[in-house]
Structure formats: structure tokens, C-alpha cells
Design goal:
Strand content: 15-25%
Order of helices and strands: EHEHEHHEHHHEHEHHHEEE
CATH superfamily of the largest domain: HUPs
CATH architecture of the largest domain: 3-Layer(aba) Sandwich
CATH class of the largest domain: Alpha Beta
Largest sheet: 6 strands, parallel
Number of helices: 11
Length: 286
């Protein structure tokens, strides 16, 4: 695996590698979930490019950017072991050159709710950096984790607006032994915070999935099951528990049934704060 830092090095390296290219964009602090993305990319592309860039435009402030975990040496080892061929680790000036204005990309209608409402400007930052990486790498495929459910749908929407026909692939959420979805943010949790998150977030979503499988289709009843688990943990602050059409993200009211979603898929997404760390998770029904 080769590591490059500048855009010119990236261009030179790509010119020597076989197509098709698959891109796995990350912000580093890699874990087994990222390894699964790389492994999935490797099955469908001759060259797997992994980017590591803590994108400042998707954070609320400089302090949040500085606090994001970084572990480049370990990241390199994981990326190479998972099968990456090229690692792109640019600094901010390579993505946002000071002498080259980079207009913000409109993340589209799917960005208005959920994380978009909770974190104004976040998805504009995501759409902008993803678009920049698409322009620099020119991949045929790109791979994203299903845990970041709204993000991957926005990236799918973004890809359709572009003319380069990049196929976006969703990779199933990878969970730790305690059920918590793998996330770079997990390492920011205290031991007690980790325990609290693991016994509430995945458990609440699992109860929803199990109840639906047993025949419960009322959104109100499914919501109540999840909220009962979450409310029992005082250290966890629920920010939203949402039931929406899996394609349009149009919310389903508590009067609705799961089958009312026009796309045939319902996205159940959850955001909660533990130890001041914001965690998200999601499942799809059916």
C-alpha cells in the first residue's frame, strides 16, 4: 500500500493503478467497520483508495475538529491489512486550497431533517468534501457504512446529480460484542458511558426489529418499546428516535403503520448523547 499526501502525488499514483477504482472516504480512527468497507470495495474493484481527512467544514467549530480522535500509524496498518492499495492523507490545504475558492455543495432535500436539523451545515460540509474526493479520485464506486444512514442517502442523491455515474454501495453496520455500532467516537466514551450506550441504543433498536418481525406494525407501539429502554438509562440523553420512509426520509406519524411507507422501507434512526459524545445508529424495516 502506498501513502500519498498531495493532490499531485495522488494523481501520479492513480495513473499507475488499474481501474476500476473504489473509494472509501474516512476521517481516520479506523476500526473493523472501516475494514469491512475496504474488504467490500476490494471484491468489486481493481484498486481500493482509502482517504483519511478530518473535514473541518462538517464540524460546528474548531474545538470539535481538534477533539476528533486521530491514530494515523494504526490506521495505516489496518487499511493495508484490509486490502487497500492507496491511502490518501491530505491536509486541509490540499482539499480546500487557500487560493482556490471551494463553493459549498447543496446536500439536497434529504439533509433537512434529523442530523441536518440537529447539526446545521453538517451535511453541506459532507457533500462538499465527498464531491471534492470524487473529483480528485474519479472512482467508479464508493463505499459507505449503513450506520450513517442519512449520510449515505444524501451521498446517493449527490451521486445522481453528478455526471460521472459513481455507484454508491452501502455496507452493513458492524457491531462490537456488546452490540454497540462501531464508531470512531466510541473511544471518547468513559467505561460507564460505554456500558450505558451499549445497553440502550442497540437494545432499543433490536426490540423494534424483533417486535416488527413478530407482527407489530404500529409506529406508536414500536416507538414506545424503544423509548422504554432509553428512558430507563438516566445518563443517556435522547435527541431523536425517528421512523421515516427509507427512501425519502419523510417521517411517519405515530398513527402510521410500517407498511404505509411508499418505498416499502422504513428507516428507524436514533441519536443520543452519552458523556457529551453524540452517537447515532439506525436499522431498516423490513
Amino acid at each position: 500500500m502506498r501513502t500519498v499526501i498531495s493532490r499531485s502525488e495522488l494523481s501520479e499514483a492513480l495513473a499507475q493503478l488499474p481501474r476500476p477504482f473504489a473509494l472509501v472516504p474516512t476521517m481516520g480512527a479506523l476500526h473493523a467497520g472501516h475494514a469491512a468497507l475496504i474488504a467490500a470495495a476490494k471484491t468489486s474493484a481493481a484498486t481500493v483508495v482509502v482517504s483519511i481527512f478530518v473535514n473541518p467544514t462538517q464540524f460546528a467549530n474548531a474545538e470539535a475538529v481538534a477533539q476528533y480522535p486521530r491514530s494515523l500509524a494504526a490506521d495505516k496498518r489496518l487499511a493495508e491489512a484490509a486490502g487497500a492499495h492507496l491511502l490518501f492523507v491530505p491536509d486541509v490545504d490540499q482539499i480546500y486550497p487557500p487560493d482556490e475558492p471551494v463553493p459549498a455543495i447543496d446536500p439536497g432535500p434529504l439533509a433537512l431533517r434529523l442530523e441536518g436539523a440537529s447539526r446545521p451545515g453538517h451535511f453541506a460540509g459532507v457533500a462538499t468534501v465527498v464531491s471534492r474526493l470524487f473529483d480528485l479520485v474519479r472512482p467508479e464506486r464508493a463505499f459507505f457504512g449503513a450506520k450513517d444512514a442519512q449520510q449515505v442517502r444524501i451521498v446517493e442523491w449527490l451521486a445522481k446529480q453528478r455526471n460521472d455515474q459513481i455507484a454508491i454501495h452501502r455496507v452493513a453496520t458492524v457491531r462490537d460484542s456488546d452490540g454497540l455500532a462501531l464508531s470512531s467516537r466510541n473511544q471518547m466514551l468513559s467505561a460507564s458511558g460505554r456500558t450505558a450506550a451499549a445497553k440502550t441504543i442497540p437494545v432499543a433498536l433490536s426490540l423494534v426489529a424483533e417486535a416488527f418481525s413478530s407482527g407489530v406494525t404500529s409506529v406508536a407501539l414500536l416507538r414506545a418499546l424503544a423509548e422504554r429502554v432509553i428512558s430507563a438509562e438516566p445518563s443517556l440523553e435522547l435527541q431523536y428516535l425517528d421512523f421515516a420512509d427509507g427512501a425519502t426520509l419523510v417521517p411517519l406519524s405515530d398513527r402510521a403503520q410500517i407498511g404505509d411507507a411508499e418505498s416499502g422501507e422504513v428507516l428507524v434512526s436514533l441519536a443520543a448523547s452519552v458523556d457529551g459524545v453524540r452517537l447515532i445508529d439506525a436499522i431498516s424495516l423490513p
